[in-house]
Write a structure and sequence with these properties.
The structure holds two protein chains of two kinds.
Chain A lengths: L21 E2 L1 E5 L7 E5 L3 E6 L11 E9 L2 E8 L5 H8 L7 E4 L10 E5 L2 E7 L16 E3 L11 E3 L1
Parallel strand pairs in A: 2-6
Antiparallel strand pairs in A: 2-7, 3-4, 3-11, 4-9, 5-6, 8-9
Chain B lengths: L61 E3 L15 H12 L16 H4 E9 L4 E7 L5 E8 L6 H16 L9 E6 L3 E7 L6 H8 L4 H20 L2 E2 L8 E3 L8 E3 L6 E2 L10 E2 L6 H4 L6 H16 L9 H10 L14 H10 L10 H5 L2 H4 L11 H25 L4 H14 L6 E3 H10 L6 H11 L6 E3 H12 L4 H11 L6 E2 L1 H8 L8 H11 L7 E2 H9 L13 H13 L8
Protein name (chain A): SHSP domain-containing protein
Subcellular location (chain B): Membrane
Keywords (chain B): ATP-binding, Calcium, Kinase, Lipoprotein, Membrane, Metal-binding, Myristate, Nucleotide-binding, Repeat, Serine/threonine-protein kinase, Transferase
Chain lengths: ~160, ~575
């Protein structure tokens, strides 16, 4: 997998850059923007399936990080590698790198409950649905909770959307 | 608009055991478990998906995040061939049905020849399209269906096409000429705008004079007025979404990309968070907004035109959102004290935090500063802009160096024309052209270039900064202006810099190319070039990136508000008429 150098503007120079769109719910994968990712919609969840690029060695582990950009704006970032590199990962994912695979998530999803892993060499990210799912008001302190149903069993009929 | 409906093969996964209860770690080796492949359906026909599960589900439950991770292996992807086959049949001729008259049985290539790539966006690639019958040049944006990942994406494309088809014929709006759909993609044939993005010109200039900023702002406001008059909210106004119809500096500016636009009725409120950082209005983040959000975005664009950087800025998306909501508009920092009160007044009005107090697009157009656009001052370049111009020049050192390399491969005929032009300018025959000689030479042929523009030309072309144009520098700028570059020349120039023949120009090779007489290359200049040119961020320059740099619009002409290709053509024609030169192309 290609390693992206840190943004040269990390030093704080204020300039005009191209940036990715903002949506209320976004999924971001550690893959180039034009990677071919398949999306399958089930009754309980969306499944995103990415085959590794030809010749690329798939990472052994991935982790899912939820970024609260603003109340009502959530980004789920799937990152390669172990959690121990959290500090570096945080910096990398917050650099607003343009060339990343991103998808706007439909409104009835619970991005905070997304899970990711490898199945038969393919990266699979599952984002559960919830009926009328909406984030509750942030209490301001303590643990944030999500009002979100249907996050249990992820099975059911498969509908292909591509 | 009709609802989007997808049909396709369905399959049922076998029931799996419930995931482990809260707090209990999965057993060792769980990550190696391979679930049984779900049985695939043998049905040949499509059927409706099951209805939304909402009515049958228990009510929402509060769950702590830490205990709700389902086992990711409860679900496995179907075999690739199966999925591909299913998706091919599902997606054929579905997206545009009922949205806009299109040609379901005609291919876009039946009528248009698709040529070179003009641009690449979030959802597709735009290519030059030439009408096979009339030879008219257009642009074709192709959106691959594999990019339409969810029903939301499909609805966005349908809405975008419906909006483009409904907008009036207007000089500031790109026109949709035709729409096509095949099994793989949706193709939108539009007017060609090959003058580059407003974004690129802003970056190249650093900032605009008030007169030039007023002209661009007038176009942006006119776009907002036309959209709102037709019940369309754009929701994604930004410099990247405006293209120049041609390469001249006074070319028509047009809005493109209505991918996030939406139809609205007066008084209707929207809650969906969509937009772009820097340009998003605060009420979008508060999830209650109307068409006034476009005035805010236009105000951000105007702020950027006048001073070169965004008003609400941070290193992270969270920081940008906070800055927007804080709404602290800085009109104190350089260069704002030197900008007219009229311009600042309009910026303040458009960036009102309270959308009810923001002007309408019509009121923006009636603002005195825009009304008197032709009288707006042409503020001389300040220190900040000069620094940015130097950055621009540093970035272009590599490009100019490449043009000199190209010069070494020109044909004898091509060289002769340029040599004669140089000789015309070099009146004291010392092998270099001073600014005075350049001015005198241009005056001799009746050029209308003003002195500041000649100085900008000299500054941009004088790569080594010694105050003269030597023959090589003169050739470089002339080559660029005449667009003599072709791919064979570009390939030779690329190989000149790629000394180890790796297929890439590495940082060290770039440093060699940009080194001064002492052999030193400025690290900041290297960083700037790589940031601009190395679009895939792999730390080196590929041939494709090199070609894109050479053909990109970020050249010195953008630094001159009046100089244009037409002016240069006038110069060339004058030289031809006095019989001393024969132009080769």
């Amino acid at each position: 997998m290609r390693i992206h150098p840190a943004s040269p503007t990390a030093g704080g120079k204020k300039d005009l850059r191209r940036l990715p769109h903002v949506y209320s719910k976004v999924l971001e994968l550690p893959l180039p923007a034009d990677t071919d990712v398949q999306v399958f919609e089930g009754p309980d969840a969306f499944h995103f399936v990415a085959a590794p690029a030809a010749g690329a060695r798939a990472a052994a582990t991935v982790r899912v990080r939820t970024v609260r950009i603003h109340p009502g704006v959530t980004k789920v970032v799937v990152q390669a590698g172990a959690a121990e590199r959290a500090a570096d990962d945080d910096a990398a994912s917050d650099s607003m790198e343009l060339d990343r695979w991103r998808s706007r998530l439909p409104e009835p999803t619970c991005p905070a409950m997304a899970v990711a892993g490898y199945v038969d060499g393919q990266l699979v990210v599952t984002v559960p649905k919830g009926p009328g799912a909406e984030e509750g008001a942030d209490a301001g302190q303590g643990e944030v909770t999500w009002r979100c149903g249907g996050g249990g069993k992820i099975t059911g009929r498969l509908v292909v959307v591509q | 608009m009709g609802n989007v409906c997808f049909c396709g093969t369905t399959s049922t996964s076998p029931d799996q055991p419930e995931p482990a209860t809260a707090g209990k770690a999965p057993p060792q080796g769980a990550t190696n478990r391979r679930p049984a492949t779900p049985p695939s359906s043998q049905q040949g026909s499509s059927q409706e998906p099951s209805p939304a599960p909402g009515a049958n589900k228990p009510g929402p439950k509060a769950r702590p995040k830490a205990t709700t991770k389902a086992n990711p292996y409860d679900w496995a992807p179907p075999a690739a061939a199966h999925a591909s086959r299913a998706s091919a049949s599902v997606s054929a001729s579905r997206v545009l049905d009922g949205v806009v008259p299109h040609h379901p049985r005609l291919r876009v290539t039946d009528k248009y020849h698709l040529g070179r790539e003009l641009g690449r966006g979030e959802f597709g690639v735009t290519r030059l399209a030439t009408d096979r019958a009339t030879r008219e040049r257009l642009a074709c944006k192709s959106i691959p269906k594999r990019r339409l990942r969810t029903a939301v994406d499909v609805a966005d494309v349908r809405r975008e096409v419906a909006i483009m088809a409904s907008l009036p014929d207007h000089p500031a709006l790109v026109r949709l000429r035709a729409a096509y759909e095949d099994a793989d993609a949706v193709h939108l044939v539009m007017e060609l705008c090959d003058g580059g993005e407003l974004f690129d010109r802003i970056v190249a200039r650093g900032r605009y004079t008030e007169r030039a900023a007023a002209a661009a702002a007038r176009t942006v406001a006119e776009v907002v007025r036309a959209c709102h008059a037709h019940g369309v909210m754009h929701r994604d106004l930004k410099p990247e979404n405006f293209l120049y119809a041609g390469k001249s500096d006074d070319a028509q500016l047009k809005a493109i990309d209505f991918g996030l636009s939406v139809f609205f009725r007066p008084g209707e409120r929207f809650t969906e968070i969509v937009g772009s950082p820097y340009y998003m209005a605060p009420e979008v983040l508060r999830r209650s907004y109307g068409p006034e959000v476009d005035i805010w975005s236009a105000g951000v664009i105007l702020y950027i035109l006048l001073c070169g950087v965004p008003p609400f800025w941070a290193e992270t998306e969270q920081g940008v959102a906070r800055a927007i909501l804080r709404g602290n508009l800085d009109l104190q920092r350089e260069p704002w004290p030197r900008i007219s009160e009229g311009a600042k007044s309009l910026v303040r009005q458009m960036l009102q935090m309270d959308p009810k107090k923001r002007p309408t697009a019509q009121q923006v157009l009636e603002h005195p500063w825009l009304q008197n656009a032709r009288k707006a001052p042409n503020v001389p370049l300040g220190d900040v802009v000069r620094a940015r111009l130097q950055q621009f020049s540093a970035m272009n050192k590599f490009k100019k160096k490449a043009m000199r390399v190209i010069a070494e491969h020109l044909s004898v005929e091509e060289v002769e024309v340029i040599r004669d032009m140089f000789a015309l300018m070099d009146t004291d025959k010392d092998g270099r052209v001073t600014l005075e000689e350049l001015k005198a030479g241009l005056r001799k042929v009746g050029s209308k270039l003003a002195e500041p523009e000649m100085e900008l030309l000299m500054e941009a072309a004088d790569v080594n900064g010694n105050g003269y144009l030597d023959y090589g520098e003169f050739v470089a700028i002339t080559i660029h202006l005449q667009r003599l570059s072709n791919d064979a020349h570009l390939r030779k120039a690329f190989l000149f810099f790629d000394k180890d023949s790796s297929g890439y120009i590495e940082r060290a090779e770039l440093a060699d190319a940009l080194a001064d007489e002492a052999g030193h290359a400025d690290e900041a200049a290297l960083d700037n070039v790589l940031r601009e040119v190395d679009t895939d961020k792999d730390g080196r320059i590929s041939f494709e990136e090199f070609v894109a740099m050479m053909k990109a619009g970020t050249d010195w002409r953008k630094a001159s508000r009046q100089y244009s290709r037409e002016r240069f053509k006038t110069l060339s024609n004058s030289l031809l008429k006095d019989g001393s030169l024969r132009m080769a192309r």
